[in-house]
Amino acid sequence: MIRYIDDMQLTGKRVFIRVDFNVPLEGRRVTDDTRIREALPTIRRALEMGGKVILASHLGRPKAGPDPKLSLEPAASKLADLLGAKHEVILADDCVGDGVKKQVRELKDGQVLVLENLRFHKEEEANDEAFARELAALADVYINDAFGTAHRAHASTAGMVPFVKEKGAGLLMRKEIEYLGGVLKNPEKPFVAILGGSKVSDKIKVIESLLPKVDALLIGGAMAYTFLKAQGIEVGKSRVEEDKLSLATKILDAAQRLKTAIVLPVDHVVANEPTEKGVKSETPDRAIPADLMGLDIGPKTRAQFNQHIRNAKTVIWNGPMGLFEVEQFAEGTRTVADSMANNRGAVTVIGGGDSAAAVQQMGYGDKMSHVSTGGGASLEFLEGRELPGIKALETK
Ligand code: ADP
Ligand code: MG
């Protein structure tokens, strides 16, 4: 069982919240504050409940010790703007040590203490026990709201948790667990999964985990060509993983045994090169001419996928349908997003970093039941793996 912040008693307690403030920076400017805004409900809730709020996050990949370019200062000042004048945000100059302990002791009601970048200490990623204990000593309650790093067993996501009296999940973490967990555990049927993206090899475990659960598996993106080639269909210059052809055949056979429909593209958008300058055309059927490459699903495939999505009660999507970063190959990805958004009666969930980015960029973000904030973490969750950061929150 996992406790959530709402069910806990926080008055007067030191509440250590692991947030994901790993935001993109240009110099000292936060260029996208989505992650900070997504942590706000949990931070506000902890403050309303009378907790003394301590926030911890990593930022980037500092190589050797403290790096001023990767300070959490820009994130802390962005947070101060978002929280408004009622709350003072203080940035500590480290995340452990006597200075930090003193700042925690002196924290007043309504103030928020942001610890400096956890990864300024190599012990964070090494999940060092002494370091984990030092972090734990700052807290009465541990809350994890950083789903994006929940697939890593680091000191702040896993190591410190047993050393804090109480533990629970924040509101963002709760939404991730409820939606991603919900589609895996008890999806309302028909349950349709759409998989795409660049490589079959990245998604094998997701396919294996979803295959027995779904009614239909729609496959688009570059990974579709490996499946088509495995069936003896000509795919031209499309991206194919030659060493995964026999695996693709095995997956198709397994689907047949499970009576799960695997729906592959029946036509394609193709071009001579994968750029804006590529001369685009559509194929009449599944085969791709020898000198061309498949870069998006074609109109007949879009219509078929739409039909499956329209009739579903649960839809999970991971992996773009084409090279969506180039506008002339984005239509398949857009159509899938649109079909999902228009199925108001269904639970619609997006996992995967590029898929989430595509959905947000195309303006469908708030029309889905849930767009996961964790790229790698959401994939591992869909693989059916136990994430260390979530496992650490389990109580009997
Ligand atoms: P996610 O991050 O959502 O799990 P992936 O990382 O697996 O997705 O795949 C995303 C990438 O796949 C995108 O950069 C997209 O351009 C690429 N892609 C999808 N279809 C094709 C294709 N037909 N040819 C080349 N690249 C493709
Ligand atoms: Mg990706």
UniProtKB/TrEMBL annotation:
It catalyses: (2R)-3-phosphoglycerate + ATP = (2R)-3-phospho-glyceroyl phosphate + ADP. ATP binds at K203, G294, E325, G352, G353, D354, S355. InterPro entries: Phosphoglycerate_kinase, Phosphoglycerate_kinase_CS, Phosphoglycerate_kinase_N, Phosphoglycerate_kinase_sf. It is an enzyme of class 2 (transferase). GO terms for biological process: gluconeogenesis; glycolytic process. GO terms for cellular component: cytosol. Keywords: ATP-binding, Cytoplasm, Glycolysis, Kinase, Nucleotide-binding, Transferase. It holds the Pfam family PGK. (2R)-3-phosphoglycerate binds at R35, R119, R152. Belongs to the phosphoglycerate kinase family. Monomer. This is Phosphoglycerate kinase. It comes from Stigmatella aurantiaca (strain DW4/3-1). The gene is pgk.
